[in-house]
Design a protein that fits this description.
With 231 residues, this protein is of the alpha+beta class. The protein has three domains: 3-53, Roll (Structural Genomics Hypothetical 15.5 Kd Protein In mrcA-pckA Intergenic Region, Chain A); 62-124 and 211-230, 2-Layer Sandwich (Alpha-Beta Plaits), CATH 3.30.70; 129-204, Alpha-L RNA-binding motif (Alpha-Beta Plaits), CATH 3.30.70.1560. The protein has helices at residues 3-9, 15-23, 115-122, 143-151, 184-191, 222-230, and strands at residues 27-29, 32-33, 47-49, 52-53, 62-67, 96-98, 106-112, 130-136, 154-155, 158-159, 164-169, 172-177, 196-204, 207-208, 217-219. α1 (3-9) crosses α2 (15-23). The two termini are 22 Å apart. 32% of the residues are buried.
């Protein structure tokens, strides 16, 4: 198994971040510094990160969390602020969030120790849909704005892909995208003249937020994990 993938399966970080960790000179194999994330290793290779030996790959788990307002989409914070990982009790697994939700956004976020799955769920090439319920200013939202969102709007980092958009109420939209640009839904709504007042993610791929309470979490069932991996 490639070193970066091994680190991801061991719960160190997502595969992309694991590659950065290797190139930063933080990984040794059998006591020797390694800078090649493609090096073949296994549980007998003596892999260590920052001098800490890895015991092998962890049992892979995925949790759904209903992120509250203000919580950070990180595993830890040097300033002691609340993170999505801190919402869970100690699980014995080194969890990290799959993608991000802004601090001022709420809703469904996934936590896992499976770096390969995290990579597939967040990389744009896999086009995993994510659905948001947004309340906007200057309602009602007209057909011109809806058509623009559905066709794609020009942002400072380029044209967005077409979105699925449904008007739930005069000032509430349900928007589904499969890209992962920074604050994308907020910027899309700004671009059509309807700044976002609140944003909540209600679905990630086949998973729905459902009635999971704000700040609560649940472990995904094996069937739900299989659906995610099938994406």
């Amino acid at each position: 198994m490639r070193l970066a993938k091994y680190l991801a399966h061991a719960g160190v970080a997502s595969r992309r971040v694991a590659e950065q960790i290797v190139r930063a000179g933080r990984v040794t194999v059998a006591g020797e510094l390694v800078l090649d994330p493609a090096l073949d290793v296994d549980e007998r290779s003596g892999v260590a990160v920052d001098g800490r030996p890895l015991e092998g790959t962890e049992r892979r788990v995925v949790y759904a969390v209903n992120k509250p307002h203000g919580a950070l989409s990180t595993a830890s914070d040097p300033h002691g602020r609340q993170t999505v990982v801190s919402l869970l009790p100690e699980t014995g697994a080194r969890l990290y969030p799959v993608g991000r939700l802004d601090a001022d956004s709420t809703g469904l976020i996934l936590l896992t120790n499976d770096g390969e799955l995290a990579h597939r769920l967040t990389h744009p090439s896999f086009e995993v849909p994510k659905t948001y319920r947004v309340t906007v200013e200057r309602g009602p939202v007209g057909e011109r704005a809806l058509s623009a969102l559905r066709a794609g709007v020009m942002l400072e980092d380029g044209m967005t892909a077409p979105a699925r958009v449904r008007r739930v109420r005069a000032d509430i939209l349900e928007i589904t995208i499969h890209e992962g640009r920074n604050r994308q839904v907020r910027r899309m709504c700004d671009a059509v003249g309807h700044p976002v007042l609140s944003l909540r993610r209600v679905a990630f791929g086949p998973l729905k937020l459902g009635d999971l309470a704000l700040g609560a979490h649940r472990r995904l069932s094996e069937a739900e994990e299989r659906k995610l991996r099938a994406l």
